[in-house]
Every structure is written in C-alpha cells, then in structure tokens.
Amino acid sequence: EFRKAREVATYFVEEENADQVRWVDDLLARTSIDNENDVCVLVLDHGVNNGHRLLEPLLSDDDCHAADPDWGTHDGHGHGTMMAGTAGYGDLGECLDTQSPMVLRHCLESAKILPPSPEQNPKRLWGHFTARGISRAEIQAPLRKRVICMAVTGNDDLHRGRPSSWSGQVDELASGYDDNRRRLIVVSAGNVKEPEEWRRFPDSNITSEVHDPAQAWNALSVGAFTEKTTITDPTLSTYSPIAEAGDLSPFSSTSAIWPDRKWPIKPDVLFEGGNVARGPNDSVFDTDDLKLISTYYDPQIAQFASFDATSAASAQAAWMAARLQSEYPSAWPETIRGLIVHSAEWTEKQKQRYLRGGSKGDHYRLAKICGYGVPRLERAISCASNSLSLISQATLQPFAKHEEQSRYISKDMHLYRLPWPSEVLRDLGELRVQMRITLSYFIEPSPGEVGWKDRYRYASHALRFELNGPGEHEGEFVQRINRKAREDNEHPGTEGATDHWTLGETRNVGSVH
Q1: Nearest one of 221, 508, 160, 253 to 364, comparing CA atoms
Q2: 3-state DSSP helix/strand/coil percent for the chain, to nearest 5?
C-alpha cells in the first residue's frame, strides 16, 4: 500500500514550546469525545500530570489516585504522563500529522503505584501496591469498563517462565479470584536497555527474558516491533537503523530461553516500540528520529516527548483494547484479549529472520520471540463483525467429582458448528484456505507459592479446542475426544486436524491458545 511519508518524532519534539502549543491547538480543535459506553484505561505508573491540555479532556482530578495518599498523584518522573498520552490517543504522531477529525471513545484514569524518588517499594509488596492502585480506581468508579495498563516491571530475578508473587497477584486480579470481578490487564514485556546489548541485536533480545510480572498467564503481555527506519538528522548521515522495517524492536525481551514448554508463550503480541541507530565503529545512538512521541509531563517546558520501548508498545495495546471495548461494550475482558491476539499476524520480516523452517517447532520458536505477531485494530473489529467469524462467550464447569471414586473427572464441553460458507469454498476449487481459532480464558492461580513451580498445580483448569477431521462426522468427533468413550473402547478410529495446525500441540500452553 502507499502511505504519506510521516514526520519523525524529532520534528515535533525539537520545536519551540510555542510552536508545539499550536500543534496541540490544532489537534484539540479537531477532536471530540464520545464515551457513551463509559470505557477507560487505568494507567498504573508514577502518576499522571493531567494539567497537560491534551490530557485534561480525558483525565479528571477525581480519577487521579495514589496507592499511598502521602505520595500525591502528580508525575515527577515523566513516564506516567507519556503512558497516558499514548493510552488516550494511540500513536500521537499520527494524530498530529493529519487534518482528519478525531473522536476519542474512552477516558483515562491514573493510579500512582510507585513512590517519589528516591524511595522504592519493598519487593515483597509489588503485587500489593498494584492491587491497591486498581482498588482505588474501582472504588471511585465501580461500573466503568476498564482496561488496566502497567509498564512497570522488574528484572532482578530470572524466573524462566515460573510465576512470582507479583505475577501471581496479576493473575488473581485478572481472574477475579478474590472478588469475582474479571479484569483485562495489559503488561509490558520489559526492555533490553544497554547499548552493548543493542549492538548484539537480535541475539541479545533472544537471550533477554521477559520481565516480571509479564509471565502472568492472564495478562496481555506486550513486546515491541518497529516500522521506524527513517533517520533525518544530518549529523547521523552515516548511521542506519539496527532493525529493519517489520522486525523485532531492539528493546523487546522474549521468552525464547525459557527451558520448559509448560509455561505460556510471552509476549503475546507486539506493538510499535521504536528503533536504534548504528553508526561507524559499531557505535549506537538512541535517536528521537526512530521513536514515537507522547505528552511531556511539564507543559510549561514542552508539550511533547519522545517515547519508545515496550512501555510505548503496551500503552498502544491498552488504547486498542479500549477502542475494542467501546466498539463491543458487552465483550468480556477475555474476549477483548482474544480479539487482539486473534488479529495479530507475523510480519514477513519476522518470519524471514526467526522462522528457520516450516515445522511446528520452528513456528513455536517464532512465537516465543515475536508472540503471535502484530495486531491491527481494523482486523480485530472486522473479525467481530464478519459473518464468517464465530465469537462465543460462554461458561462451563470443566471438572466434577467422580460419583464413586475420590477423584475428579472432566465434565462439560461446548460443541460449535462453524459457519462454513460452503458455496464460497466450492467456488475456490483447490485454492488453500486458512482458518484461525483463538481460545482465551482466565485461570484462577494457586493462592500459595507451594504449587507455583508446577503448572499443573498453578493453573486451576486448562481448556482446549479441537476440530473434526476431514470426513469425520459429528458423532465420531464427539466419541473421539470423549475420555469415557475412549476408556470404554468406543473410539471410532478417526483422526482430527492436529497435523494441519501451524503451531500443533504447542498452542496448548498458557491461557490463550
């Protein structure tokens, strides 16, 4: 497709503040707010300065909270205000670089979960302050449809996919384990930060594991890719972008080195996270040309700030989730997560670089580096409105106690007849078609760390999907997948479609398949 060449972030960031104010005036003049479904993004961070004119219409004083009231709700760091700008507007650079009218369909909330510098929260209380920040917002506005976004992570310990007390708390909050209130929580995957590591791209990304608590089963964990490859700074004429367009961002961490296949695939998806420049003598430079822009925390100095890495990516993911929630107000948190993952696709560059072959194992490795790919809002919306798509929000009881023995057995399953467009498929003849299925649910984690090293004890249940094979009738299909039928030697001898899945059995990890 052809697109208009866009201004790089440096164009806006390096202007005088008075000129930046004119860009703000222009954007506000084109912007209206229509939040009839009462959807919001709650930013858990250093606080947000809602005095910024772009944030004033979205974030009221009443919706600014702090886990500890003594901290105040202001942002003295800058990160929280940048998160809010992107969570509210999406790609702010794209909003500025157009003359089209804009409609904002969600509002913002802020909960300060980090103390003012140089104080730090005790590590054992990271999950506690996360829960407290969420609680403050929910007490203030209990009926809102809320997307929770947190780009605060820790990498002191290597968990190799195992849960921690913090990720366990995130899983509990998402599942509604304590209060029966399910929540969509978007978490950044964590960053590769050091210039020495950027030089080793992409090897450093493959060996840098996702940060705590992004290993949480129920979270939508967000890594970064990049399309930013334009360098306009004349002093960097001998520099080139480290990552090519469509590739993983040099900032993004992965789960490629997790040794056990029993833990979830993380990150789940990738959003734009910016790029880094490489120059003579293998020097690297973190130029604003290769970043996004967002709102600066002190508008008396500047309106815009450069923004990148998995923080920017997770804020964009939260923006997309809020847009989907406003589009489909009855969608569950699990459904919104499922739609985002369902709309994701690997770029050609990602497949070229990380897909060594075409086997299921190769695709599993690609997923552990790039998640399920890059989501697109238009594709997610069309998924939900397309007549060839089936979306089901349903409950079941996975297990029941055996009537005679002291053990539990499988209980419910749901059977769906897919809306096959038979005439359309016949007209296609021998043309190959692809079907995509996404199953998204929340586990209720084991409440104590005693079982956290074993997924069979950590996860409360594990749901799966199966598809009938070619020529396999409905009755045969049910018999084949029914455990009791197999135990009673009633297996019909038919086979399913397992060999045709791109990911094969490796899709059955975590709580999104």
Answers
A1: 508
A2: 35, 15, 50
Residue 425 main-chain phi, psi, to 5 deg: -65, -40
Count CB atoms within 10 A of the CB of residue 199: 16
Report how far residue 230's alpha carbon sits from residue 243's, in angstroms, rounded to the nearest whole number.
11
Q: 409 forms bridges with which residues in the sheet?
A: 400
Closest Cα to residue 210, out of 268, 262, 169, 165? 268
pLDDT digits (tens, 9 = 90+) for 416-456: 988 778 888 889 889 988 889 999 999 999 766 655 666 66
Please choose, from the candidates 286, 202, 230, the residue with its C-alpha nearest in 3D space to the C-alpha of residue 97.
230
Q: pTM for the complete prediction? A: 0.94
Query: What own/partner pairs with CB < 8 Å and gap ≥ 24 does 363-369 have?
Result: 363/502, 363/503, 363/506, 364/261, 364/265, 364/503, 364/504, 364/506, 365/256, 367/265, 367/503, 367/506, 368/254, 368/255, 368/256, 368/258, 368/265, 368/266, 369/202, 369/205, 369/206, 369/248, 369/254, 369/256
pLDDT digits 0-9 by tens, 16-52: 999 999 999 999 999 999 999 999 999 999 999 999 9
